[in-house]
Write a structure and sequence with these properties.
Shape: elongated
Order of helices and strands: HHHHHHHHH
Low-confidence stretches: 178-187
Mean pLDDT: 75
Radius of gyration: 22 Å
Strand content: under 5%
Helix content: over 70%
Number of strands: 0
Distance between the termini: 60 Å
Largest sheet: none
Number of helices: 9
């Protein structure tokens, strides 16, 4: 009776949208096949606790981005995978330099704007603090699963317009873990 009850509960709660993928994964487990082969994506100079990576990538949207990246890389042949990882690392490095330059330019423009408004005695809206506040509010909102799903859908809708790469967004979060640990260790 327990077995039948478990089966009935299973079938009543089965998500039919993912049933085929689930069945394929279950068949792979029975045959002792690896569902996703290991992909050597991250190379840190020192030991990085998995808890640190999970804490920065704990939202459902980040997990979706990470799974999509790993699945895409796992489907590639070994030599293409290595070249794609090298390309992603190069793009991540370039994107981080561009982000630092953008932050510097925004602060310089905001400072110049503030000095100009002070000299002319004009009250103006503080643009850079407003953008920073918006980023903080969005980061806090993403901790709630429902708001994270909404924000993720909005980001996906604007991905082509904003030119944002989901792979780089996910990798930048993991890269922050390595940078933070490097600064703490002093290496």
């Amino acid at each position: 009776m327990q077995f039948m009850g478990d089966r009935l509960n299973f079938y009543s709660s089965l998500n039919t949208r993912i049933a085929a993928a689930w069945a394929m994964n279950e068949r792979g487990k029975e045959e002792r096949r690896i569902v996703l082969p290991p992909v050597p994506l991250f190379e840190f100079d020192h030991d990085v606790p998995i808890e640190d990576i999970l804490s920065l990538t704990s939202t459902a949207s980040d997990r979706r981005k990470g799974r999509a990246l790993i699945a895409r890389l796992a489907d590639l042949p070994a030599e293409e995978r290595e070249s794609e990882i090298a390309r992603l690392n190069a793009e991540l490095s370039r994107a981080s330099r561009v982000a630092v330059n953008r932050q510097r330019a925004a602060l310089l423009i905001d400072s110049g704007f503030s000095v100009g408004t002070y000299l002319f005695g004009v009250n103006a809206f503080p643009f850079v603090p407003a953008l920073t506040l918006t980023q903080i509010v969005l980061a806090c909102a993403q901790r709630a699963p429902a708001l994270d799903a909404i924000i993720d859908e909005i980001e996906r809708a604007f991905i082509g317009v904003l030119g944002r790469n989901e792979d780089l967004h996910f990798l930048s979060k993991v890269s922050r873990v390595a940078r933070r640990l490097t600064v703490q260790d002093g290496t």
